[in-house]
Prior knowledge:
The complex is a heterotrimer of chains A (327), B (295) and C (315).
Chain A: H1 2-9, E1 13-24, E2 27-39, E3 44-48, H2 55-63, E4 71-80, E5 83-84, H3 90-96, E6 101-104, H4 108-111, H5 118-130, H6 134-147, H7 164-176, E7 182-186, H8 194-211, E8 214-219, H9 222-228, E9 231-236, E10 239-245, H10 246-251, H11 256-264, E11 313-316, E12 319-321
Parallel strand pairs in A: 3-8, 3-9, 6-7, 7-8
Antiparallel strand pairs in A: 1-2, 1-4, 4-5, 9-10, 10-12, 11-12
Helix pairs in contact in A: 5-6, 5-7, 6-7, 7-8
Chain B: H1 2-29, H2 31-48, H3 50-53, H4 85-121, H5 123-138, H6 141-152, H7 156-184, H8 186-193, H9 198-235, H10 246-253, H11 262-289
Chain C: H1 2-28, H2 34-39, H3 45-54, H4 61-75, H5 88-123, H6 128-142, H7 145-159, H8 172-201, H9 204-211, H10 216-253, H11 259-268, H12 272-300, H13 302-305
Helix pairs in contact in C: 1-4, 1-12, 5-6, 5-8, 5-10, 6-8, 7-8, 7-10, 8-10, 9-10, 10-11, 10-12, 11-12
Amino acid sequence: MENEKERIITPFLSVKDLVVEYTSEGEVIHAVNGVSFALQRGRTLGLAGETGAGKTTIAKSILRILPDYSATIKSGEIMVEGQDLLKLPVKEMQKIRGNKIAMIFQDPMTALNPVLTVGKQIAEAIRLHYGVSKKEADKRTIEMLEMVGITGERFSEYPHQFSGGMKQRVVIAMALACRPELILADEPTTALDVTIQMQVLEMIKNLRNEFNTAMILITHDFGIVAEVCDDVAVVYAGEIVESGSKEDIFIRPSHPYTQGLFASIPRIDSDTKRLNPIVGMPPSPVNLPQGCHFSPRCPRATDECRGEPIAMKELTPGHFCRCFRVE
Amino acid sequence: MSTPKQAKAPTQRLKKESQSLTTFKKVLQNKGALLGMIIICIIIFCAIFAPWLSSYGYADIDVKNMFAKPSWEHPFGRDELGRDILSRVMYGGRFSLQIGFYATAIALVFGITLGSIVGYCGGNVDTVIMRIMDVIQAVPGMLLSISISAVLGTGMIEMAIALGVGNIAPFSRILRGSILTVRKSEYLDAARADNTGALRMITKHILPNSISPIIVQATLGCANVILIASSLSFIGVGIQPPNPEWGAMLSAGRAYIRDYPHMLIFPGMAIALTVLSLNLIGDGLRDALDPKLKK
Amino acid sequence: MWIYILKRLLWMIPIILGVTILIFTIMYFVPGDPTSTILGASATPAELAAKREELGLNDPYITRLLNYLKDVFLHFDFGKSYLTSRSISLELLSRFPRTILMCAACIGIAMLIGIPLGVNAAVHHGGAWDTASMVLALIGVSMPVFWVAMLLVLVFSLYLGWLPSVGYTSIQHYILPCIANSFSSLAMQARQTRSSMLEVIRSDYITTARAKGLSERRVVFGHALPNALIPVLTIAGSNFGKMLGGTVVIETIFSIPGIGSYMISGVTGRDYPVVQGSVIFLAIMFGLIMLLVDLLYAAVDPRIKSQYYRKRVKG
């Protein structure tokens, strides 16, 4: 009985104090600075924030596909079903990639190998993880293609023969081919035409529901967060500044940054004359400000904010905020 | 009215200075390029100051001591006529370096001119001239140089022409490409709106765009010219004995390879070091000037 | 696909014609009167004049050019040697197999050793192997081919006695020449492969391949290498041109009776039709090889292949 309860409570994915650095031309870039979050089975977490906040780095760290010539995971834990991914040998990690955890990349134009057919690129993942024959893998690939709305005949076509939106569908098919338990979707619709974006988003939603996959959706668009996510974590300068359920964040945004983000979205129902951006620029990851990273731009900042690093405060159960000046 | 104009000029000049200075610094940081620059400076120095550096003339024949092995007085040994090989190697640098310089200069001047004409005129002129360039480039460099040498004969200027002609095409393509890029880009419309004249266009937009590939091509092209020049001398088409050209020296030494290998080693090493140093510098320049390349 | 082949062929023809015209025009200006070479010192002025008329040397440039083009392309006749009065075409044909086989062997060596070296250097980027092989490659590219040849002869033929230095009858005779000629191309191929691989390995689709859980070996050889080879193939074509230049020198050093040594004998003997014929012949050979490279290129890169299939409506 106790074990059953534990299994229900223990999240599928649990990231603790993740720190990731890049080195470039002698400078150290602090991309991720102590990020922690958890994700239950079947739930979708939105990692929201501006470009360069470190969201993609977090996702790539989970799969450990950061460029090893410049990036280092300095510390932290990434627990998946009791295993710390960061401590696994590479061979074990390779069994998980594409299989238990898969990634959908941002730019479909460059995510596919131009000299291999799309069918082959999908089938090789299936063959690798399921060990089935070529014929069987091809069959499943065609099924997968049809599921994303591409006719099976296009199996032996090359990526350049597909439009941007179709390419992204191929990428999605490739990610879902082995029925992963967790999908990392890195701004999957940002690079697409606005008209296609909704289609692809709908498709992702439907597939997620059908396979009951957990998902981390990286985006800078709160509209997408509202459509697709259950929980939200707002990322700023390599830290999570606020996290909670979708309702918590949308109805009661508490961190000054989150509030600033919502305030900057012009409303369609009111007569907006000027835009309301957040003052200033995100800090350089080489030279992060002391204490709260948002303090230089925060209207409520005090000296206390600029001293020690700020800890997360639980406002209501499940709703966390990295600020003690919450109103 | 005059103050704003004055204020503009110094900052522009400052920006350009720091750009070439930073590039130069970047190249110096490249250890290979630094080594290359040191080597080529030594070679140039020896070539220029050979009469003072060598204790023997390059034509001083001493038949009694022919084929002498390397020793303290003659660090590179003596050749088949008793001449001091070290002196001959130092003097030989004059030929290779001059041919390299002149050939590259010819290729540069004609290439840039041709490329500019083609880029400016476009249309049929472009098609015809570029096709001619294609034909010239379709003949392997060595073969083209042999043919031209057959007509012109031996001699430094003749060789420079024979080698320079084959290198015109790359430069013309660089210029042409740069002009076409500037033409297509919005640069042009912005500049026109600014009332910039054609000369300004060239100096401010086209030249900066093409300077880096031109410098890289000139350095690497010079290395290639020196290599082919020595090959031509070796087979009897280029500079001939008794001139102490390195390729010619190797050709003469070939007959004595079995008994007196020292005649082969030093001139060959001189060619290799010269070409190597230019390749190192060219590579360093290319790495420093290519924005895409990051460690 | 056939349209592509046809297009490339149509492109080649004017180039080959152009090359022939170019070389003919250059050699047209060679000074001196060849008739005395042909007939010897004892010929009378009348005989010389008659010979000049017979060879058409008094005709205007255009006539001579058109006659030459007609001879070369319609009758495959490159004329007669000034010194031996024998058919140049026959000589070229008899020497051709030797030269082409040697060049093929050299290209083979250059690619079989150079490409793996380059791949290895790229995969171990920044490591000792990378630095060492690139330094060696740079040195290799800087060494003149005739010097390499003579050093090889010095070591392997004269000191060690393993391989012969002169002759052309057995396979052993070809080992040193082929190594010497492929040295520089090998080095260039290694450098080119390395830089090509380095660029490809940073591409997004390589990250995608890793994210699928493929082994690093699969990523490098199945995903990266096919992409990296495309520019390498292009370079292989121009490498071949440099190799043809090297062949001329190598055949001279090792006394191998190929087209290269034939050309040199023409140069030293002032036998200009021989020089002209050999250069044009080799240039045409080079052109055809470039054509082959273009076709290979199309076979390897699907983006080119599919341009010429029925265009599917992009959906």
